[in-house]
């Protein structure tokens, strides 16, 4: 039995005598509900519960090691090794490797005088790990540790939130426990690791607490970058229009991120602060987000009935909530093949086709199409089919010979092709597990039969497919946009017609270049080979929609549309429709540094250039970076207007203004009264309106007025 820590890594090894194996994999009986047949174990590497977390290391003919990373408590159970030999025999380990996954827990020991004691423990004794525990207060390492079951004692002056880690795993902390207080500084993330599909949305559930005599004034999430100060995520250019803080100023700190990209992968932390400099707390370690693409994995699994191809819809990390998987064959949903969870089962002799998969609810984000190249190994199952079909084969030899003679007796080439196709289909039906239909010709009946018997399987190298570089595009009204695209098709086909179309429900595809509203504005910049890129000029808001590429060949079946297509979002040029200036943190006093962020409602491509203006004059003497402008508040500068624009002069682009008043607002001071202002000097930021769009901020010393 092995005891391992949650979120850590474990290696399980199984040895066996020298055997000539063809297939080796691990399985766990607790996963049998996800197998097609509970009597036939399936490869753990294809199981969606272990996606991206398992790997095998094999020492030829003697042992195999299973490595599981990012352990979860549900991984606890038995693990076996399965072997298949080149003679078709199968073996599995008689003794299982037992795994128990545990978590760290801080327990408060009975008081000792004025002291309280803490112990760090697990539900089982960790395997091969020294029992040395390190202690953290309010998320910070205290430079103290205890051995084994020894107690860590605290005095009342040590009030705070405490957690522990174990030797070798300092980044895995126990849930915090509040000592000498009912409420402490803490941030708790429901999930420490989150996996999601590119293009989808994700929520990072989070709660936080703080001493009852404190008041929170500012909250934000940030993306962890080494050696950089935390920056409000909502002001980050790459997250513009895609992040939403759905928490509150009390306990909930949940974050939502939309339209996920691979570049969003990383660690996210929540941070909140009070009035004083000491009242700042970050929840660390944070939440690790992995944004992934789906992939189709192919596995040949020997079973008693013969060879079966198992297609697995895999990811590099484990998706939450047991998602439902959808399979597609040549772009169309698969409805007549057996499936189980994330797996699709095929006979290995079936035609070579394009297979892809998606998660239900995110069908527009499919995996890349996979063409099955694996050939069925020769084995006793194939020989059985050949033996059973010998008599019928002899009849087919006579039939194909007669057809060959018929051709020699002046039958037209067209008739020959027709009879040829019938003969091939007949052979295909008999040797279903050995051949693919329509992919091989013949010179005579006997020769064609010989070829089909000697070659186990034939799969085409190219199939019908359309690939879009970007699935979503954002552009400004009046600008131009390109939709990069490539396509492929079987080598025996010839493309005759290509076009893009605007998707309208319940309407047939229409060539975009013939649409009246696109006259003179669309240009197909691809070719008749592989490139299918489209350019649209002078974009209008009405152009927002889904676009797909379609091509056809000379054959009746040679029509293919790339779906789902490209979603184009055209934003208006009015200031309130595209740009807005955001301020962080809320301006409070002179000497404070604030960040102005020029944000767009959707993420523009090609890293646009942002220009800042002060009172309609370009800003040249202030530090800027990407879409941000950094200001140090000072008295005596008067009311200043700051605005931003995308490229070009301010007058010719979209912009949004924010007015930041940094002078003494004498008029407002006279109206409201100096005494009232002094009383409000240290009022909470939660009483101040959020700075969005156009607003006026007036300051007098440390007095902030609106």
Can I get a quick summary?
It contains seven helices and 53 strands. By secondary structure, it is mainly β.
Please give a structural write-up.
The protein starts with a strand and ends with a strand. 10% of the residues lie in helices and 39% in strands. It is built from 7 helices and 53 strands. It is flat. With 706 residues, it is mainly beta.
How are the secondary structure elements laid out?
Layout: E1 2-5, E2 10-15, E3 21-27, E4 54-59, E5 63-68, E6 77-85, E7 90-92, E8 97-102, E9 105-112, E10 115-121, E11 132-137, E12 140-147, E13 152-154, E14 160-166, E15 177-179, E16 186-189, E17 193-197, E18 202-204, E19 206-209, E20 218-223, E21 243-245, E22 255-257, E23 266-273, E24 280-282, E25 287-292, E26 295-303, E27 306-314, E28 325-329, E29 332-333, E30 339-340, E31 343-347, E32 354-359, E33 370-371, H1 380-388, H2 390-408, H3 413-430, H4 445-454, E34 465-468, E35 472-476, E36 481-483, E37 485-488, E38 495-502, E39 522-524, E40 534-536, E41 545-553, E42 559-561, E43 566-571, H5 575-578, E44 579-584, E45 593-600, E46 610-614, E47 617-618, E48 624-625, E49 628-632, E50 639-646, E51 655-661, H6 666-672, H7 674-679, E52 696-700, E53 703-705
Parallel strand pairs: 1-8, 17-25, 35-43, 51-52
Antiparallel strand pairs: 2-5, 3-6, 4-5, 6-7, 6-8, 9-10, 10-13, 11-12, 11-14, 14-15, 16-19, 18-22, 20-23, 21-22, 23-24, 23-25, 26-27, 27-31, 28-29, 28-32, 30-31, 32-33, 34-37, 36-40, 38-41, 39-40, 41-42, 41-43, 44-45, 45-49, 46-47, 46-50, 48-49, 50-51, 52-53
């Amino acid at each position: 039995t092995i005891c391992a820590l949650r979120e850590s890594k474990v290696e399980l090894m199984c040895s066996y005598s020298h055997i000539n194996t063809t297939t080796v994999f691990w399985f766990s009986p607790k996963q049998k509900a996800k197998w097609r047949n509970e009597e036939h174990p399936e490869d753990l590497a294809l199981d969606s519960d272990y996606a991206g977390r398992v790997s095998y290391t094999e020492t030829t003919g003697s042992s195999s090691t299973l490595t599981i990373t990012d352990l979860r408590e549900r991984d606890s159970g038995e693990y076996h090794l399965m072997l298949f030999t080149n003679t078709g025999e199968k073996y599995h380990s008689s003794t299982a490797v037992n795994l128990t996954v545990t978590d760290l827990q801080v327990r408060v020991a009975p008081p000792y005088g004025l002291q309280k004691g803490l112990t760090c423990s697990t539900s089982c004794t960790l395997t091969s790990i020294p029992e040395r525990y390190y202690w953290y207060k309010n998320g910070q390492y205290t430079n103290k540790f205890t051995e084994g079951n020894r107690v860590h004692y605290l005095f009342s002056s040590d009030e705070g939130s405490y957690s522990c880690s174990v030797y070798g795993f300092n980044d895995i902390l126990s849930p915090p426990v509040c000592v000498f207080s009912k409420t402490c500084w803490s941030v708790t993330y429901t999930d420490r690791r989150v996996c999601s599909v590119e293009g989808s949305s994700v929520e990072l559930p989070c709660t936080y607490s703080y001493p009852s005599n404190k008041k929170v004034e500012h909250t934000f999430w940030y993306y962890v970058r080494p050696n950089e100060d935390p920056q409000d995520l909502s002001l980050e250019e790459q997250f513009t229009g895609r992040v939403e803080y759905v928490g509150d100023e009390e306990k909930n700190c949940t974050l939502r991120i939309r339209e996920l990209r691979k570049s969003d992968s990383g660690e996210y932390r929540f941070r909140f602060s009070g009035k004083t400099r000491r009242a700042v707390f970050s929840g660390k370690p944070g939440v690790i987000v992995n944004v992934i693409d789906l992939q189709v994995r192919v596995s040949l699994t020997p079973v008693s009935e013969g060879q079966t191809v198992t297609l697995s819809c895999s990811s590099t990390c484990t998706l939450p909530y047991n998602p439902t998987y959808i399979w597609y064959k040549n772009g169309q949903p698969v409805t007549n093949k057996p499936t189980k969870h994330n797996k699709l089962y095929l006979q290995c002799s079936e035609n070579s086709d394009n297979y892809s998969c998606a998660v239900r609810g995110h069908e527009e984000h499919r995996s890349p199409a996979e063409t099955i190249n694996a050939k069925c190994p020769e084995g006793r199952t194939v020989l059985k089919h050949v033996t059973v079909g010998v008599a019928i084969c002899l009849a087919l030899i006579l039939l194909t010979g007669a057809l060959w003679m018929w051709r020699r007796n002046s039958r037209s080439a067209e008739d020959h092709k027709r009879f040829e196709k019938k003969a091939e289909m007949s052979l295909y039906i008999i040797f279903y597990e050995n051949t693919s239909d329509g992919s091989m010709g013949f010179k005579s009946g006997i020769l064609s039969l010989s070829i089909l018997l000697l070659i186990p399987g034939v799969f085409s190298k190219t199939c019908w497919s359309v690939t879009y570089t970007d699935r979503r595009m954002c552009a400004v009204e009046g600008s131009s946009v390109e939709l990069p695209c490539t396509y492929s098709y079987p080598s025996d086909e010839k493309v005759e017609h290509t076009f893009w179309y605007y998707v309208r429900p319940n309407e047939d595809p229409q060539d975009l270049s013939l649409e009246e509203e696109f006259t003179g504005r669309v240009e197909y910049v691809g070719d008749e080979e592989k490139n299918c890129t489209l350019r649209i000029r002078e974009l209008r808001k009405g152009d927002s929609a889904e676009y797909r590429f379609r091509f056809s060949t000379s054959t009746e079946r040679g029509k293919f549309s790339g779906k789902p297509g490209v979603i184009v979002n055209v934003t208006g040029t009015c200031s309130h429709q595209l740009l807005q200036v955001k301020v962080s943190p809320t301006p409070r006093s002179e000497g404070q540094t604030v960040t102005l962020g020029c944000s767009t409602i959707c993420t523009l491509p090609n890293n646009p250039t942002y220009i800042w203006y002060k009172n309609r004059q370009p800003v040249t003497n202030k530090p800027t970076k990407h879409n941000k402008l950094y200001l140090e508040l000072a008295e005596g500068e008067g009311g200043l207007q700051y605005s931003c624009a995308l490229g070009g002069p301010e007058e010719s682009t979209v912009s949004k203004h924010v007015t930041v008043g940094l002078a003494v607002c004498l008029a407002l001071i006279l109206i409201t009264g100096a005494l009232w202002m002094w009383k409000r000097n240290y009022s909470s930021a939660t009483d101040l309106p959020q700075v969005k769009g156009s607003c006026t901020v007036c300051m007098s010393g440390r007095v902030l007025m609106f």
